[in-house]
Amino acid sequence: MIEYLYLITRSERQKVMALAQSHSIDAILVTEMTRWGRSTIDLIETLQSLHSWHVSLIAQTGLQFDLNTPQGRLIAHLMASLAEFERDLVRERVRSGVAAAKARGQKFGRQPGQRLKADKLGPKVLQMVQQGYSYRKIAEILNLSKTTVNDIVKRHRQSAKKPSLER
Fold first, then answer.
1. 10-103, which class in CATH?
2. Beta-carbon neighbour count of residue 87 at 10 Å?
3. Contact 26, 57 (CB under 8 A)
4. 62: three-class secondary structure by DSSP
């Protein structure tokens, strides 16, 4: 039986492991060996479990580890360690890049005032609210999210409430 799972989630991974444990499958094909495990320890433990169940883990790159030999175990451990090291380096580079950008004054996220679609459709949304349409129906008709409709109405109500300077 051949079953294909793409972009596997944790629960799907657990299902595949259950299939392996029940001897329903002989091999698992992955895009990269290192993508199967969440960490070095996780990958090694998974490889050992699969080995004990006589299930192969094969990478599309052609790598297949024979955990029966010391060389196979060494290569599996090295590959898993290098992959985890690479992930840590990428994470560190991203963090330092973000910190450097913030130091240069770079702003992240949506800039204030950039609500092109909401600003364009604001008057129509407010008109439909006055006509008694529900936020969900307005969102559906105007192809907006319900949250956007809610934000438009909330901004309108806040701008309508001007603080009084009189006492």
1. alpha beta
2. 13
3. no
4. coil
The token duo for 88 is: 């840590």
Region of 109 please: left (phi>0), alpha (psi -120 to 50) or beta. left
CB 46 within 8 A of CB 17: yes
As to burial, measured by CB atoms within 10 angstroms (0-12 exposed, 13-18 middle, 19+ buried), residue 166 is exposed
CA 152, 157, 163 angle in degrees (round to 5)?
140
Sequence spans of domains, the chain: 10-103, 116-160
Q: Which residues contact 68 (CB under 8 A, 6 or more apart)?
A: 51
Q: What is the pLDDT of residues 43-79, one digit of tens each?
A: 888 888 988 998 888 878 777 766 777 887 888 888 8
Closest to 79 measured CA to CA, from 90, 66, 63: 63
DSSP H stretches of helix in 63-115 = 70-103
Q: Is 59 helix (H, G, I), strand (E, B) or coil?
A: strand
pLDDT tens string 18-35: 999 999 988 888 887 777
Give the residues across from 56 on adjacent strands.
27
